Amino acid sequence: MLKDRNCGEIDEKLIGQSVTLAGWVHRRRDHGNLIFIDLRDRTGLVQCVFNPEQDSETHHLAESLRIEYVIQVSGRISPRPQGTENRKLATGAVEILVESLVILNESKTPPFYVNEDVDVDESLRLKFRYLDLRRERMRNNIILRHNVVTFIRQYLNERGFLEIETPILLKSTPEGARDYLVPSRLYPGKFYALAQSPQQLKQLLMVAGVERYYQIARCFRDEDLRADRQMEFTQLDLEMSFVDEDDMMTLLEGLFSSLVENVAPERRFNQPFPRLRYADIMERYGCDKPDLRFGMEIADLSDIVAQSLFGVFSGTIAKGGVVKAIGVPGCGKYTKSQIEELIETAKKNGAGGLVPISLGNEAGVLANLTMEHVKSVAAKYLTLDQIQAIASRCEAQPGDLILIAAGDRNRVNAALGTLRTELGGRLGLADPNALAFAFVTDFPLFTWNQEDERWQPTHHPFTSPWEQDLPLLEAEPGKVRGRHYDLVLNGYEIAGGSIRIHKTELQRKVFQILGHTEERIQALFGQLLDAFEYGAPPHGGVAPGIDRVVAILAGEPTIREVIPFPKNQAGLDLLFGSPSEVSQAQIDAVHISVKTDQ
Amino acid sequence: MLKDRNCGEIDEKLIGQSVTLAGWVHRRRDHGNLIFIDLRDRTGLVQCVFNPEQDSETHHLAESLRIEYVIQVSGRISPRPQGTENRKLATGAVEILVESLVILNESKTPPFYVNEDVDVDESLRLKFRYLDLRRERMRNNIILRHNVVTFIRQYLNERGFLEIETPILLKSTPEGARDYLVPSRLYPGKFYALAQSPQQLKQLLMVAGVERYYQIARCFRDEDLRADRQMEFTQLDLEMSFVDEDDMMTLLEGLFSSLVENVAPERRFNQPFPRLRYADIMERYGCDKPDLRFGMEIADLSDIVAQSLFGVFSGTIAKGGVVKAIGVPGCGKYTKSQIEELIETAKKNGAGGLVPISLGNEAGVLANLTMEHVKSVAAKYLTLDQIQAIASRCEAQPGDLILIAAGDRNRVNAALGTLRTELGGRLGLADPNALAFAFVTDFPLFTWNQEDERWQPTHHPFTSPWEQDLPLLEAEPGKVRGRHYDLVLNGYEIAGGSIRIHKTELQRKVFQILGHTEERIQALFGQLLDAFEYGAPPHGGVAPGIDRVVAILAGEPTIREVIPFPKNQAGLDLLFGSPSEVSQAQIDAVHISVKTDQ
């Protein structure tokens, strides 16, 4: 080895010893005759001192050092002179008195500072990713990602799970997202698809008697890219036999709580993870993956305002609608234009409008509220008692703003849910240190697709319906509940899971309800239906997204920050400039031709 | 959980306890009124007894059980009646007296026996892979593979390596094997390629300062398939900074010896792993990945026969050729037609012919050999002393066969090397329990490609030349040695590795020697050359093939047996029937059209 220790390990205990280190020139400072180099490797920094009185030749060579040069130094570990210690640095009490220096490689001046945490243009970071990854923040993210995956594997291995690799080149089964196609050279006109997930394969592994399977699996979906969606992503793919929902949620809670305790012990979270019903959280948060780090729950005012003189409210309720609201803390002073903007947001998200009630500029006690503090178009139609009841229901105080929506239940929930998320973020209500895990259960098995006028699976077609809802399957599919359990965290769905169907006839019936012809069922799912005929055990699974989990634990806003070589929003890998043109011979080999006239 | 223990864990210590198990009906035997079921799960078998006197209803239900039904049983753990114990089974001293039975799923009669180790048609095994994987042999292979990968990760994690995922969708860089192409939807006429290996990416990670990287990486090459080559394969991809060849070989020897000790402790191997030079092993074994479990080394007879009266030998040497031989134990009795077949093999592999010398039918002492025992066309031209010297050089005894080839050195080595491999296998000279690891070093950096009349890299273009051979680089590239270290095991190259070039100018020069234009160098490798300008550390790496390592440790003849869902030799996944036709809309989305007139 060109080094016998790492920079970050050098401390007072080693004073007096000789050491050889190798790494990058992080900083250089000259003080009189002395040259000070902060030497960096993956483990940290250590100060190296070149003194011309020690060795003039080495000192002379050190004069040529510039940042990001790769060097090897040998010298003696020494205490820093009193008063020059750096308490912020792990190695700040010591320095290396350099006796010899080898320049292993030079460096051009980097296009941005590697040694400072400054904002750098995104495309520059992607183009010079090998420099971006040298920065402390990115290095920590990469190490955290390693620690997350290592911990997950260890946790599952200890519990009898087998990691099994499943193929990536599969038959195209166009369900859900768009497949990436790979033309076959041996079979002209036919295509492989890149696995969107190992779903059917892991179910086959259950049929194969594996019982406990997992894989840190690469998956591919040809969807339009966003800052937060990559062409390829990584999920913890997991499946177990002989389990029910409770077993799976217990496993997941154990896995994720132990994970946080081990890789991010400074983060705060509650246990047990709440288990919430889909229908309830839609009423309370207006979305199926609420950020539970803050309250601001959606309150139902229907009983309070049903008999009020305000026609918008009473009329809505008379027509079977609902009146619901959120209380926004400290926003009683919002201006007309600020409120207009919120109304626009609500309208964009399905509400007919929004009735705001301002409880004034100043904090106070609700019992002392007078009509003078209240500002609202509805004020003159409502009594003080009614307003106090509304405020109380929304947990609003004087100084707060109440946003009320009236109308169809689903639209009202959706609009207020969006406002809750928007305002919670704007007001900083969520503790950035907190991790609010929760399970969401009792999803409907099917969702009606208005556009195509057909039922579609709420999650995927392999989810088992509730036993007690089976009689409704054909007559009222919309009322059938599925054996789902999603895990949400800080406003993200980090894992979707379910107990699966394991009998051929039930699986076939579900495909039929989804509108598939028998021919299509055979073509897409024939192998699974066949396999179920040969002793398929009851089983269930889950697929947490690794990229998202790491991003949340790293405190990063997008998953791109925790992927070593991401593509930009246009799907371009700036480092590699892909995709690229290929030769005509390559194209001919796979029996395709390219449409260039588009 | 539908079970509270695993079948394989039930033993005498648990006698008297109640237990609930779930699994598959492995065997059923009826004895009078009693029904015996061997219940199987992933951990093993346990005998379950249904007694009508215990519970007639449960017994009645048990009558319907057939093999591979999935069941749940509850009952009491009891010692087997004296004389009925099965010492071959871990659970053979006990049985479950069943009190209740639930049939979780039924099974059709499987197309082959899951409970017996019988030969089954390969295509049937692939079509019903979920049943094939239930068989003990395949289950053990899958578990072994898990153990291998788990051990490797643990070993490297403990040594400061970070596992980092690199992208699979890359720019096409047509070097070496054929790329799988993935048409881009967003960039009409452009293609991604599936990664053939993370080579350039892992070198960029070294430039990024990661220092110690590994990945259990999926790789893709669109080559013609064989029993032993899959469309996608898995390698341990590994790279380190600040190392030389010795550091890398030390790491690999530690990793592989610890691996065997942990996952296959019954296997025998020698340490330290021999480090052999390429030129030497070509002389001694005639191939660069010799099976070192047996001797039969190629002996050079040139000095013995240079002055002999046999013109084939003396003439060859006079013309600058060599005369070499192998001694084949116990084959002095080979018939004329058996020997003819060996001569044919030698000719197919480049030799002009073969001169056999039989040392007779019977074993004996070489000193007692007389000309009467010797049978050969060359016998009358050679003295007994010469024949004894030849035999001694080949370590041949009376009763053995000596196969001599004369001619060009490389052709003679190649032909005798092939015969050595062929006869070693036929005679069973290799101990199937032995693992003969060795490193091969000092490969030439370049190999002359006769067909294209250009130099090509012996391994890949990123390997660093020997420092002392740099002056030869332009004038005599064929004499430049590379800093390679391959790891061979039992006749397979299981890992190719090298210290890499880390300076732009040297890397560019190597690309030029390989005949690349500057334009092509920029297009294919520009990002790496650019990266080397910004402080690239000295680094090296290696990429052991996981599939092959597991197959050797499992004692399996092909890698297909250690891959859960392999494709057959025609590239077809019989379970999924891929590749498949896709819809015109899918084809249109990626701006290609299919040539159907081929």
TrEMBL record, chains A, B:
It is an enzyme of class 6 (ligase). GO terms for biological process: aspartyl-tRNA aminoacylation. ATP binds at residues 221-223, 230, 493, 545-548. Residues 144-564 form the Aminoacyl-transfer RNA synthetases class-II family profile domain. The keyword Transferase does not apply. Residues 199-202 are annotated as: Aspartate. It comes from the Bacteria. L-aspartate binds at residues 175, 221, 459, 500. Keywords: Aminoacyl-tRNA synthetase, ATP-binding, Cytoplasm, Ligase, Nucleotide-binding, Protein biosynthesis. Belongs to the class-II aminoacyl-tRNA synthetase family. Type 1 subfamily. Homodimer. NCBIfam families: aspS_bact, PRK00476.1. This is Aspartate--tRNA(Asp/Asn) ligase. It comes from Dehalogenimonas alkenigignens. The lineage of its organism: Bacteria, Bacillati, Chloroflexota, Dehalococcoidia, Dehalococcoidales.
